[in-house]
Amino acid sequence: MDILNWSSLDTVARTATLQRPALSNDSEKAATVAAIVAKVREAGDAAVREFTAEFDGASCSEFQVSPEEANAAVTQLSPDAIAAIDLAIRNVSTFHTAQLPTALTVQTMPGVQCERISHAIDAVGLYVPAGTAPLPSAAIMLAVPARIAGCETRILCTPPRPDGTADPAVIVAANRAGVKEIYKIGGAQAIAAMAYGTATVPKVNKIFGPGNSWVTMAKSIVAADAAGAAIDMPAGPSEVLVIADAHASAEFIAADLLSQAEHGADSQVLLLTTSQKIASRVSAAVTAQLKTLSRAAIARKALAHSRLIVVEDLECAVQISNAYAPEHLILQVEDGRSWLPSIRNAGSVFIGPWAPESVGDYCSGTNHVLPTNGFARAYSGLGVDQFLRHMTVQELTVDGFVGIADAVMELADLEGLDAHAAAVKIRLESLQ
Amino acid sequence: MDILNWSSLDTVARTATLQRPALSNDSEKAATVAAIVAKVREAGDAAVREFTAEFDGASCSEFQVSPEEANAAVTQLSPDAIAAIDLAIRNVSTFHTAQLPTALTVQTMPGVQCERISHAIDAVGLYVPAGTAPLPSAAIMLAVPARIAGCETRILCTPPRPDGTADPAVIVAANRAGVKEIYKIGGAQAIAAMAYGTATVPKVNKIFGPGNSWVTMAKSIVAADAAGAAIDMPAGPSEVLVIADAHASAEFIAADLLSQAEHGADSQVLLLTTSQKIASRVSAAVTAQLKTLSRAAIARKALAHSRLIVVEDLECAVQISNAYAPEHLILQVEDGRSWLPSIRNAGSVFIGPWAPESVGDYCSGTNHVLPTNGFARAYSGLGVDQFLRHMTVQELTVDGFVGIADAVMELADLEGLDAHAAAVKIRLESLQ
User: Fold this and answer.
1) What is the average pLDDT across B293-309?
2) For position A22, what pLDDT does the model report?
3) I want to staple B84 with a disulfide (CB 3.0 to 4.6 A). Which of A385, A410, B360, B368 is the partner?
4) What angle do CA A40, A44, A46 make, to 5 degrees?
5) Which among A85, A265, A235 is positioned nearest to A167, based on CA atoms?
6) CA distance A192 to A220
7) Regarding beta strands A123-127 and A388-396, do their DSSP bridges make them parallel or antiparallel, or are they unpaired?
8) pTM above 0.90, yes or no
9) What does the DSSP 8-state code read for residue B3?
10) Contact, B188 vs B180, CB < 8 A?
């Protein structure tokens, strides 16, 4: 990997260095996805069946995972794998349960009571991609907060394998995390089926989960339609930024960079370090470690647009990181915690040598569905919140109403909204 | 207004009755809006100046409201109007301050610490429309939570009047609610200026506020662009649903329906009542009260697609309301609070005879930016939350890491992600 020196770069070069890989804006694919969504909306299960045959090469008479398939899935996993799934579910549950909001009741004025009440979204749809790797961890990260929020209908779609079955680890993880309805449907057809409902698949109010460009485009389409479904957050390629000082382990850093790079060819990994020596060692270690990886070809593509950057000091590194707003930020510096108050824009932060990104990806307890592509400037990662809605309530006593009445009428007058004032006046008159 | 009897309607008729007015899907207008956004992004202030002359008929040499204009605005308001603005700011501040989340720290396992930290979004843009009425209340509802969240850059755009000034009440409300930077820019050009920044207008990370179809379309465009800005929520016409029993006041109900109907021709108002007599009286009262209103022409158009519906019992009314998911729900029934636990989908609820919708629109303390068009099924109204982001953090002790290491490697194996396992393995080996 090339090593750049930040202080020797001009503004244009700096911007180019932090440029994320451009997302393809494929209008032909967008039209195809729109057609798939429209057809599933219109023809329901028949269209889903057709697209499943076409895209997944699977012929499914029944989309739903049967109790038999679910039982068989358990037998295909080792006890250690099941124990690991359970540990992940436990930790993610612990952290997400702590996020549950409490109801608020506030007297804003004597006799004027305002409340905020949280409700789970009634029906949610979870999407777990298969693609280059089946992702039981994604099933956990989506299903656990949905269960803790209390969403009544929780369904999950995941693409079938060519033999018509679903990945057993995804089935087991989803089941154990409280999702009993699993449909073997993938891609844009899964998103459309959940957004509009079919004879088999219940309609949901909000769709969560990662996916490829087909899934992402379909999610945008249904989110823009009031008759469709809301979505969790905008998608983008995964990314990590590591800040390291001279005390860091080059081997650990290289391993963390590679664990991000193996996600996909469009992943981006960045190292900002105050040490030229660390930069050189990381470069060498990446090359060495890469040789042992089964997904080296994917990682190599991601590394092609990734950067090792030497910076003057850690203040500068933090400043660059805040401007970049990484999905994952690893602080491999002495007393990493002391830098935390300076971090403003990041999805999830990993402090110190013993918090590799893969811990958060799987089972520390934090959610791994995080804002990428700079969206951390305005979006949060997934939490219980996104499975809830807040409803406000107001109730006034007669005295409370009388006390606020003049202000309401004044403000209505300022806006020229007579009927708003009249609704107050007619009540005041009734009291005379 | 026509009175319908719910039990005599078949399923098709019921669906038609609750149908919201269709939103126009004007592809020609969409292209125009896209062109405006693109031009402002490219040409900045010059483009804003051109569109301001074209659409607002105003020639602005300076977009920003000057201290002189702000001082002059104060003198144009009565002391009572200023007191009403201050009361609204106080109540909205009280309720929104109570919403501030506390930081979370959770040990999910011994030595595995997960945290959630909330940060204000650095820069937010607030849009306050002028249109048929200037809306100082919108300035309050947007500016107060932005200030309480702690957003460092808070700017507000509002259309200029033909003489180049902004509405004085909007200026005063914004200033007193903590927004000092006000730009006299309206429509799609305002949204583009805030999303991309110009020489004059700072770029923001998220844009909030209501607007007409031009504003709404521009918000969708910039939200879909990673280089643009996030937005608060999807827009739709305002609406109210009133549930009333025989004890309710027909006069109060009529006044509440009209205060919603005067918002715009596309507003929708619904009454669900168990009493045929109340339905008839409301119909008569609406006709009578309508005569006195300055915005009767607008209200009449809204009433044309609004409904008075007689239902068998309150359970049925609540069921219909939950399916409709109104922006505003007024419970004019005996012991309204006892029905609150049954209400699932609504933006804001108004309980009892002394909580007209206009109280919440202006100054009870709740936010009046609420999900319309059925979006209450998946979205919350505006609160401090939407001006914040949650960032998660994890830090592990050596022992914590060792305790979780096997589970991480198991899960990585299940997903075939070698590098994820290797990042753990290399650390374990370093301990030997």
Assistant:
1) 92
2) 73
3) A410
4) 100
5) A85
6) 11
7) unpaired
8) yes
9) E
10) no
Minimal Cα distance from B326: which residue of A?
A: A391
- From chain A, pick out residues whose CB is under 8 angstroms from the CB of B394: 348-351, 355, 359-360, 364-366
Distance CA A142, CA A2 (A): 37
Residue B128: C-alpha distances to residues A63, B173, B182, B207, B210 (Å): 48, 11, 10, 11, 7
3-state class (DSSP) for residue B267 = coil
- Any catalytic annotation for residue A315? no
- Please state at what angle helix B398-414 crosses helix A136-149, rounded to 10 degrees: 110
Give the number of other CB atoms < 10 A from CB of residue B324. Answer: 22
Interval B93-105 mean pLDDT: 97
Contact, B346 vs B338, CB < 8 A?
A: no
The two beta strands, A239-244 and A268-273, are parallel
The residue among A187, A40, A28, A293 whose CA lies nearest residue B420 is A293
In the predicted model, is pLDDT for residue A33 greater than 90? yes
**How far is B223 from A234, CA to CA, in rounded Å?**
9
Q: How far off is chain B from A324, nearest CA to CA, in Å?
A: 12
pLDDT tens digits, one per residue of A157-197: 999 999 999 999 999 999 999 999 999 999 999 999 999 99
Residue A55 near residue A186 (C-beta atoms within 8 A): yes
B394 touches chain A (CB under 8 A): yes
Q: What share of chain B is helix, strand, coil (3-state, %, to 5)?
A: 50, 15, 35
Q: If DSSP codes are grouped into helix, strand and coil, which group holds residue A269?
A: strand
Task: Report chain A residues whose CB lies below 8 A from the CB of B262.
Answer: 417-420
* Structure ipTM over 0.90, yes or no: yes
CA distance linking residue A106 with residue A110, whole number of Å: 10
Please check whether residue A88 is in contact with residue B109, taking contact to mean a CB–CB distance below 8 angstroms: no
pLDDT at A80: 97
pLDDT band at A236 (very low <50, low <70, confident <90, very high): confident
Strands A388-396, A112-120: parallel, antiparallel or unpaired by DSSP?
Answer: antiparallel
How do B104-109 and A112-120 pair as beta strands? unpaired
Distance in angstroms (rounded) separating the CA atoms of residues B349 and B327: 9
Q: How many residues does chain A have?
A: 432
pLDDT at B87: 98
Residue B59 has a pLDDT of 83
Q: Name the strand (E) or helix (H) holding B351.
A: strand B348-351
| Strands of A181-183's sheet in order across | A181-183, A153-157, A123-127, A206-208, A230-231
pLDDT in tens, B322-356: 999 999 999 999 999 999 999 999 999 999 999 99
CB of B45 within 8 Å of a chain A CB? The answer is no
Q: Which of these, B347, B322, B351, B317, lies nearest to B334 by C-alpha position? A: B351
Which residue in chain B is spatially nearest to A223 when comparing CA positions?
B234
For B378-427, what is each residue's pLDDT tens digit? 999 999 999 999 999 999 999 999 999 999 999 999 999 999 999 999 99
pLDDT digits (tens, 9 = 90+) for A391-424: 999 999 999 999 999 999 999 999 999 999 999 9
pLDDT of residue B28: 87
Q: What is the pLDDT of residue B305?
A: 85
Is the separation of the CB atoms in A60 and A49 below 8 Å? yes
List the structure tokens of B257.
């329906």
